[in-house]
């Protein structure tokens, strides 16, 4: 169960209640998701699992004797061209470092392969890599449950020559990563070494001249940093100022969750220092700083004060006045002022969702929050809170309050949703108190990157589920964060947006001066969610992307307009058919509050309809999720998706 304390703050807290506040906050900080049932790791196929031959690119290929056909005399060219292809097609899952830790590396099960591991690609032949890339997850041997893997069959999207170039890049890069760099033997950093390292390791994203325009840039959000401007988000220097050398070194060593930027801490220190020298050479701001004999005004975080109820009350008031306009009342990025500025295509991204601290770039400690508030994030709408106008005590109050908006830590991913059996009617309203007593299950979502029109920047990155049954019906509760509600829903009392922050009294309009707002209209594409089940119970699950001709799926789909829960059947990403009116037995109730949709869908366990999924207590049913953020143009195959999990009804 997810635990969150909702603290009602008095106008003036008595000093005698300070101990209570500390105790409450301590309990909040240490409550976390149960660890049982975490999704296990996946053992990839061995070389012996590779078939002797396979039908690839329209012909039968003898894999046992297959060799890389590319000209070995042009290997360096093939490595570079293969690198460009890798960063356009593979790195979002397999990562910059080939380690399987890309932006969506934790979104799918089995996870992307760690191609840099000595026992991965390096222990196998190029023919093995060619086979795996060409055939993807659907081409795995049956014992590896092919319908679970999110690996596309790239023979449908890449030419044979392009596939071999990616193979060449991966094998060469993995070999280089597992050998001791020559530079590790040198102790002196140099600009020349930094330039060579940059072109080898950074230019695919940041561009050859550092302008943030590498071949991978259009597939990432946030976009890679433009180093020529000399502006860095995370620094210890004031807003808009160049970073210190220590800041740049920390930038290279830090892990940036939710982005494509990995930690480069594994590089020898001399290499990292060389990269710092080269990064500074890409902007004339650093040399001007030296020429003008300036010195850095470094911002340091002092020790935080004791937490009290008064501190939280102050933090809440400051947050509502100064932060809710962008971050929203509950910190879920649904602030009123973001509606006109967010544009993923131009890298005007959503403010941070403060309920997900595991995605904070600098970190989520109190001191991390203090530094972010004091220094701001250059090149973004996140300002700094100047010490001239905001005292340290108020910064700490804000930091403490921000931490109450989130879970204590990222929830574990568990394979099976255990569905408790109760007597009587099932709760249909998502606000029914009965749902508060039920365990929650957290599921990551990744981008649909396999086929059709792809989704590179999905807004919704996770969904939470609960379920109950009474022996006759199943009720499924879902919630997911979406920073913008479909406007057509705002006239319903169950849909509450974050209001604009309170204005000072002298700027407020009298009631008779306020203009009547126009009637809301539906956005072009609806917000939607679909829960997916196999139509028939069999040993072989359907493909996780809405099945195929031989393995159809039943989908429970809710959309914001028309606002309804309806049943569909699908035999692939684009082969969707809504069931006839006589077959529609699904009901649903939805709500939206402060950046989060809440939904309950209910249906009988067994309908007798051959197009429906049927449920039986004691038998696990595969379940998967699709989510569309219509405000961001997501529709059809452009969506967030999950791998298969399980729904198990209690006997």
Provide the descriptors you would attach to this structure in a database record:
651 residues, alpha+beta, Cytochrome Bc1 Complex, Chain D, domain 2, 4 domains, 15-stranded mixed sheet, two-stranded antiparallel sheet, disordered N terminus
Describe what you observe in this structure.
With 651 residues, the chain is of the alpha+beta class. The protein is built from 14 helices and 17 strands. The chain has helices at 18-30, 75-89, 91-94, 126-135, 160-177, 191-201, 203-206, 245-253, 269-281, 284-291, 309-322, 324-327, 366-375, 392-403, and strands spanning 53-56, 59-62, 416-421, 441-444, 446-447, 462-469, 473-481, 495-496, 528-534, 553-560, 563-570, 576-578, 587-593, 596-604, 620-628, 640-641, 645-649. The strands form two sheets. It has a 15-stranded mixed sheet that branches. A two-stranded antiparallel ribbon has the order 1-2. The chain is flat, with a radius of gyration of 27 Å. Residues 1-37 have low confidence and may be disordered.
